Amino acid sequence: GPHSYTAEDTVEIDCHxxxxxxxxxxxxxxxxxxxxxxxxxxxxxxxxNGRIDLSQAEAVMDVIQAQNDYALKSxxxxxxxxxxxxxKEIREGIxxxxxxxxxxxxxxxxxxxxxxxxxxxxTIDPMMEQINGLIGSFEQGRIMTExxxxxxxxxxxxxxxxxxxxxxxEERAIVTNIAGTTRDTLEEKLSMGGxxxxxxxxxGIRDTKDVVEKIGVDRAKxxxxxxxxxxxxxxxxxxxxxxxxxxxxxIQDKKSVILLNKTDLELVISVNELEHLTNxxxxxxxxxxxxxxxxxxxxxxELFYHGEIQFNDEVxxxxxxxKTALEESLKALCMVKQSIKDKMPEDFxxxxxxxxxxxxxxxxxxxxxxxxxxxIFSKFCMGK
Length: 384
Known about the structure:
By secondary structure, this protein is of the alpha/beta class. It is 53% helix and 10% strand. It has 15 helices and 6 strands. The protein has helices at 19-31, 41-48, 54-65, 69-79, 82-106, 116-136, 138-146, 160-168, 211-225, 242-250, 271-278, 293-305, 320-341, 346-364, 370-378; strands spanning 148-154, 186-192, 195-201, 229-235, 256-261, 282-284. Strands 2-3-1-4-5-6 form a 6-stranded mixed β-sheet, with helices on both faces. The two termini are 18 Å apart.
């Protein structure tokens, strides 16, 4: 120490041999007073010893659990202190204003607060803008870490299950020429171009008297309501009908990609016609011949990431706890603005500024309860 990961003196034992040798050495050190590390104990010690702050400690687990390239890059950026740096900058600005108010109240003869309200209001505006930006990044951050909840919709026999199999690279969903083969939702996780999709193949949307199929259709609609992305598969070899109109109305306000499938057959629907009806991007594909899938990948990236993400200066919030703290700090700064507008005494400003300062402090662990620390590190892998 202090150059080790935990900032404490550390001994590392390397040995030759197999599992038996390792077990004997482990038994020896435990017999002589050592004990197995608790979940997250090494990272917790690093945090408690000031080696890293709480946002960096949480990033350690995010790095371990990263499911795609974007999530990994975001976690590494946070581990290097991107979130810490931004939060500390905002807190320093707030602390300066608190100190100025307290000094003026203690020494009114030498420090005047005349016109200070307008000056403070102008000062905290950019702070609120930065906090709003961090809160706004959460949705993208959530999608990075958790993946995109994707639902495949379409009429029976449109090629939904064939598309699912192409995306997975294996025969996971049953494919037949019989309409209504898929009767329940089928969920799979896949990686596409560095992003993670949680894909749900659903029963074909149509009016049916079959009780089991009707349950499948209802589940399909419910899954689509909660989805981040809807992939609507249209059978280009068949005319559109009332079932298609129902799906089109359903996806009007959702992030969606329309796939005009079965381009290996003679089409009776054009891309332009479908784009006009749906107001969404239409990609011609053939699930049978596996054509057009790479364009789908590009379109999904554009929808959610606007192309490629650069992590040089960009700070992305991926943590619900951090987002909640940001929202609470923003609310406190809004109260400062309201107090200024209501011409309240300056000590009211100081109370809400301190609240915002402390809320932001919970993100990096400067003002955090012991039980919260225990909860955070209890989620770590054993020994990390």
